[in-house]
């Protein structure tokens, strides 16, 4: 990790464009969030990403972004902890206005629906739903006029899961809260949309055997597992003027796996 940290310190001496619009991405240091961070940086946004445990991946993302001449910073935030959420709203970059807010952080523990405990359900809701609400509530006054917000939900938030009822419930709540927010914010010009991914090549699937991986691929009409870049491309669209008349939508990015 030392060589990456040294490279980051060196690059932070470079002059970056402090006037570039700011994108805040929770859970932006790995997986889908890392893909989004890198893609939005390529679109000209300064990146403030949060992470909770994987500092190496988060700083690696910052290093990749800054190598390409765009400013970025990683902030350690437990999105289920209200005190830590305040650190985000107090960051100097946020004080100067947020153009894009991506709520991507989350936790998924596979527990049978029949064995799910109340504590497990509460924990998933605290991270996936109340954490997202807490981030929004903390920075809402710092969102610029016509700001865009994208919430990373899940197909499981619509169809459910026998081994992820807590995750599904938290994502369902997230979907409907985001759609309600879109309706309330519409007159202000701010837009809120949801992406519901299917199978994506992240840590959630890392434990799959080769056989399980192949089974997943065969379930998808496009015959492959999605990549973080597949999700990031749709996020970039929803943050652009090409989607200026879209708000309150749930966009399914799943290769045809689930067609509600």
Set out the fold topology.
Layout: H1 2-11, E1 22-25, H2 31-42, E2 46-51, H3 55-67, E3 72-76, H4 82-89, H5 92-95, E4 98-103, H6 118-139, E5 143-152, H7 156-159, H8 165-185, E6 191-197, H9 210-219, H10 228-238, E7 250-253
Parallel strand pairs: 1-2, 1-4, 2-3, 4-5, 5-6, 6-7
- What's the domain count? 1
What would the average pLDDT be, to the nearest integer? Answer: 92
What would you call the structural class? alpha/beta
C-alpha geometry: globular
Give an overview in words:
The structure is a single chain. With 260 residues, this protein is of the alpha/beta class. It has a single domain (2-253), classed as Rossmann fold (3-Layer(aba) Sandwich), CATH 3.40.50. Helices cover 44% and strands 16% of the residues. It contains 10 helices and 7 strands. It has helices at residues 2-11, 31-42, 55-67, 82-89, 92-95, 118-139, 156-159, 165-185, 210-219, 228-238, and strands at 22-25, 46-51, 72-76, 98-103, 143-152, 191-197, 250-253. The protein has a 7-stranded parallel β-sheet with strand order 3-2-1-4-5-6-7, sandwiched between helices. Strand 1, helix 2 and strand 2 form a beta-alpha-beta unit. Helix 2 packs parallel to helix 3, helix 4 packs parallel to helix 6 (118-139) and helix 6 packs parallel to helix 8 (165-185). It is globular.
Q: Any key phrases for this structure?
A:
single chain; 260 residues; alpha/beta; Rossmann fold; 7-stranded parallel β-sheet; 10 helices; 7 strands
In short:
This protein is of the alpha/beta class. The chain has one domain (2-253): 3-Layer(aba) Sandwich (Rossmann fold), CATH 3.40.50.720. 44% of the residues lie in helices and 16% in strands.
């Amino acid at each position: 990790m030392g060589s990456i940290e040294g490279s980051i310190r060196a690059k932070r001496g470079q002059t970056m464009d402090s006037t570039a619009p700011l994108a805040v991405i929770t859970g932006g240091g790995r997986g889908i969030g890392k893909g989004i961070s890198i893609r939005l940086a390529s679109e000209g946004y300064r990146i403030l990403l949060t992470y909770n445990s994987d500092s190496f991946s988060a700083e690696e993302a910052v290093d990749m972004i800054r190598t390409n001449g765009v400013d970025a910073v990683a902030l350690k935030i437990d999105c289920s902890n209200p005190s830590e959420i305040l650190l985000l709203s107090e960051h100097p970059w946020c004080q100067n206005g947020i153009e894009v807010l991506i709520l991507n952080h989350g936790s998924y523990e596979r527990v049978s629906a029949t064995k799910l405990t109340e504590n497990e359900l509460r924990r998933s809701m605290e991270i996936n739903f109340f954490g997202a609400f807490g981030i929004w509530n903390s920075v809402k006054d710092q969102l610029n006029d016509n700001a865009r917000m994208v919430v990373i939900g899940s197909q499981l938030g619509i169809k459910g899961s026998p081994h992820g009822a807590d995750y599904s419930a938290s994502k369902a709540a997230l979907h409907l809260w985001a759609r309600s927010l879109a309706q309330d914010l519409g007159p202000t010009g701010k837009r809120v949309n949801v992406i519901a991914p299917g199978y994506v090549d992240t840590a959630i699937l890392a434990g799959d055997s080769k056989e399980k991986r192949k089974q997943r691929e065969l379930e998808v009409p496009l015959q492959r597992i999605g990549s973080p870049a597949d999700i990031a491309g749709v996020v970039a669209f929803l943050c652009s003027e090409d989607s200026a008349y879209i708000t309150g939508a749930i966009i399914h990015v799943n290769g045809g796996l689930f067609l509600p």
